[in-house]
Write a structure and sequence with these properties.
homodimer, about 325 residues, alpha+beta, 60s Ribosomal Protein L30, Chain: A, Phosphoribosyl-aminoimidazole Synthetase, Chain A, domain 2, 2 domains, seven-stranded mixed beta sheet
Chain lengths: ~325, ~325
């Protein structure tokens, strides 16, 4: 089986071949094909700009792979800021010896996921490092989007806002955890890894007044809510029984002592919406495949000292702590 | 001594602290400080967009470090496309256990080098991976610039164009090589790692008709010239004795069997300029600190089958091969 060699990253003949026979084969577009040091784009007005590095292990998992994840993660970071994803960059960090076949599978995933979203791969870079100096494959991306709705911000939560999640909580984290522990379930736990631009585009085209939106990746739902409370200076109250969690995810969490709200999602957003528009928002979400499990889970109760409170089914209130400690390295 | 822990990358409390106490401390600006999933930028007209991953080993070397290199590399990729560097993203991939002090030194380098160029760090990401799964520190960047001169392109070389290098050849590669081999010289070999925007801005403001410009990083001078010959479909002829190479770099290459033209630079560009403007170009370059060693090294002799020919001091002609094989991994 062909493998990636150090020479593929040395900037010489073999690098040129890898670019032509792999990257341009799958990503071909007028901008990338020029192979300049920087690509020239025509875009103006307000743009959104984001970056992310993907180090997930294993690189193939139920529901996706590191390539699909890299596109979905980048697209979602742009979409939650009200931006239509347009261009992406890709930096590959490859361990010498990675099977060419694995790399090609991942490149194909990237290409498919990018096409679904109308995103062009505009520029890229490839480094190959000696065996043992990186684990298989990391991908760093950046993304550029066109802002179609301004004002979405973590600093923008208002008293009375309703908090909505667009899907079940903790699926990606639970999937990676199960894969690493070698655990099998009757209904396998699948990552929710997916691009949410189509769903979010529908929301942005609706009249719904959204104040903030964020995809709940590393740090999970608890991470997003605590950051929001902090950045907007508000108290948020969540009803535990309204948080949608798959049975298998619940089971895994009980077994291993995790909180579903601390586990990463890779295809779910949290939304703070003006109270009067909450039902309308839910309606739009439910009309999409990606948002069919959307639920109202709580509200912003007041301005003041930042805090997230969770009410149990028995009416007991406790603080929803932000995640701390090691959690799960290489989750995304 | 404080070290970077896995928890610094988990997206929870410790990540927030690292962001506030390290990254925002040094990179603080209105855009970054908002800490949104994507940053909103106001930009108009044509933009240049580039990405690069930096894996250089050692991370500190004579003349720079991986941080300075990351900014210079990104700035130079934008500048050679005629773009004024404006914004950068940074993705840090950190090995658990990296001394905090090392990371802070590098963050300071980045901050200084970015300020010199008027570049804002607009967005970032940090991943910490378990010991042994990445070597110390990799940095992936992307950059956005405003195009101030269009038409510079590797596809744009014309018959008669004069080929100029803005400085001595092979310095960065030779420096890394010497550091890794533990070799000491009377005059230490320093990397040429530096941002070239100020120098290039002067060129762009002059009346000089530049057809192509590229920084000779991985693959070195031979890599750039061969790619240009290929992409523009031209034959290029270089006079060996006109290529400026430092004595120590020459010595090292003879000792270890390398070609200076295959070694990376990180602060030198190759320029193809219309013949009538070559002297004027040299004058502008010589008026800058970064370009004081600039030299005319050859010319585009004809359209036709892509080829780079080098003439030795004895008049013998041979092909200047593109670099091939492993060369030097983790050079940049």
């Amino acid at each position: 089986m062909k493998k990636i060699l150090l020479s593929h990253g040395s900037g010489g003949e073999e690098t040129q071949k890898l670019i032509k026979n792999l990257f341009l084969k799958h990503f071909s577009n007028e901008i990338l094909n020029k192979l300049e040091d920087a690509s020239i784009l025509n875009i103006s007005g307000k743009i959104a700009f984001t970056t992310d590095a993907f180090t997930v292990s294993p690189i193939f998992f139920k529901g996706g792979d590191i390539g699909k994840l890299a596109v979905a993660g980048t697209v979602n970071d742009l979409a939650v800021m009200g931006a239509k994803p347009r261009y992406m960059s890709l930096s590959f960090l490859i361990e010498e010896g990675l099977p060419f076949e694995d790399l090609e599978k991942i490149v194909k995933s990237i290409s498919e996921e990018a096409k679904k979203n109308g995103v062009l791969i505009a520029t890229g870079d490839t480094k190959v490092v000696p065996r043992g100096q990186v684990d298989k494959l990391f991908i760093a991306t950046s993304g550029i989007g066109e802002v179609v709705r301004s004002g979405l911000s973590a600093h923008n939560l208002q008293e009375g806002d309703v908090i909505v999640v667009s899907g079940t909580v903790g699926d990606h984290g639970a999937c990676i955890l199960a894969e690493r522990e070698g655990m099998e379930f009757d209904i396998p736990i699948e990552s929710d890894c997916k691009s949410l631009w189509k769903m979010i585009e529908k929301l942005l085209n609706s009249e719904v007044e959204i104040h903030a939106m964020r995809d709940a990746t590393r740090g999970g739902l608890a991470g997003v809510l605590n950051e929001w409370a902090e950045q907007s200076g508000v108290e948020i109250e969540i009803e535990e029984e309204k948080i949608p969690v798959r049975e298998a995810v619940k089971g895994l969490c009980e077994l291993l002592g995790f909180e579903p709200t601390h586990l990463a999602n890779e295809g779910m957003v949290v939304i703070a919406v003006k109270e009067k528009d909450a039902e309308k928002l839910l309606e739009v979400l439910h009309s999409t495949e990606e948002g069919k499990n959307a639920s109202i889970i709580g509200r912003v109760t007041k301005k003041g000292s930042p805090k997230v409170v969770i009410t149990t089914p028995y009416g007991v209130k406790r603080i929803m702590e932000p995640p701390a400690g090691e959690l799960l390295p290489r989750i995304c």
